[in-house]
What we know:
By secondary structure, this protein is of the alpha/beta class. The protein has 2 domains: 307 residues, 3-Layer(aba) Sandwich (Aminopeptidase), CATH 3.40.630; 124 residues, Alpha-Beta Plaits. It has 15 helices and 21 strands. A 6-stranded mixed β-sheet has the order 1-2-7-3-8-20, with helices on one face. Helix 2 packs across helix 4, helix 2 packs across helix 15 and helix 4 crosses helix 15. It starts with a helix and ends with a helix. The structure holds zinc ion. Zinc ion binds next to loops.
Amino acid sequence: xxxxxxxxxxxxxxxxxxxxxxxxxDSPAVAAAREARAWxxxxxxxxxxxxxxxxxxxxxxxxxxxxxxxxxALAAMLEHRGLEVRVLRLVDAPPIVVADLRAxxxxxxxxxxxxxxxxxxxxxxxxxxxxxxxxxxxAGHEQPLGVAGALDPESRLFARSSGDDKAPILAMLAxxxxxxxxxxxxxxxxxLVFEGEEEAGSPHLGAYMELxxxxxxxxxxxxxxxxxxxxxxxxxxxxxxGTTGVDLTVYGPVKGLHDGHYGNWVPNPISxxxxxxxxxxxxxxxxxxxGYLDAVVAPxxxxxxxxxxxxxxxxxxxxxxxxxxxxxxxxxxxxxLLRPAxxxxxFQSGNVGTRATNTIPTEARASIDFRLVxxxxxxxxxxxxxxxxxTLGWTLVDSEPDSATRVTHDRIVRLSWGAGYPPARTPLDAxxxxxxxxxxxxxxxxxxxxxxxxxxxxxxxxxxxxGTPAIILPIANHDDNQHAPxxxxxxxxxxxxxxxxxxxxxxxxx
Length: 510
Ligand SMILES: [Zn+2]
């Protein structure tokens, strides 16, 4: 197989040398992208019409009738293009739409994921209505939709899910149209997977994968969601951090006490909780729980290099956030995101200002969220934190301590753990990672490669069974007001997406 590929490559180079011209000898990626552009330029209004029709269907995950209308529309759009469509259903869950286009003689199946549900919309905050798509030019002037004529690529289509995440669906289908017009077939078994409750946290995605492993365990995934890099360059995301969280309650006296009469003698829960928290991380944000980093796999050389090469937006962000300094001991933002994080997200006790009283309060509470990197798990985080607290002399409880417990233990902390899930990361130098990045480079769209999202999405599900490559490939503009009022898609991002999908469909051959 590989020898054949090499031979084909030599033949291609030779042909290119002989003809001395581009065009006839372009790689499938370049040819498919060029064909997609030509096709799009003569079909922009048709693409827009189909996009508008899909965006007009309300798509909040809990709105089951809206969800079913989306499923019907998607199935029709896919069948119309000759894909084999299957609608997977679990009771009380939005369906997953799976569509296949098999390539003759190809063994590899690559799945392209997008989600057809969208965030709920606060209608009153919209300029217009969330499910009534409106086209506006760069100056904000409304443009007619149902007419002929050229479209300004800087104009934007405003509607819920225009960017997040129906844009990739339309771009994939337009790419298939362009390929069919050019009599070009996918280079692998192409599978499109459209989920219907991503914005509700994908609570059934794992169950769906167990229900239909033959459909939802492909050889590789491209997860088409989110915005491209702020610089406008395409982005490939190779992972996401995992997450878990805990609430802590530290107990003082059973009733509030005069701090003049009892201070320095009755333990102050605020002070004790502050000491506890400061034992978890230092001022630069580095975790200081002994042994906590033992479970952490150091970033690879490729990951460090990719993180360092991400365009620097820090000065802009510092101005925007109005911060005079940063954590991380000199690290860049994207390097800091490669590390695990402990974030204190809340602290509650007593009162301040005019409501302050000279009292030793009865309890103090804090809430922490953890961002996990390979190979941490929610269980390993919990084990390390609990061991650390015991070493510091704390007695751990999981419910309100009774009087007997309170009088016989000096330091009591109640822990309430939330749910969580592990991180995921596909190596940047894995064969599939290199293939995808190469295709984008070949068509002149050298991607920003980010080893991990700082945030958490359940990407680990896509990597199962262990090691299935899963790469995030967004197409929406970074300023698309994702999740917010006036969500929009810049038309040029849709046009670019069509070319990217056509190039990938035509060339991820192995
Ligand atoms: Zn999304």
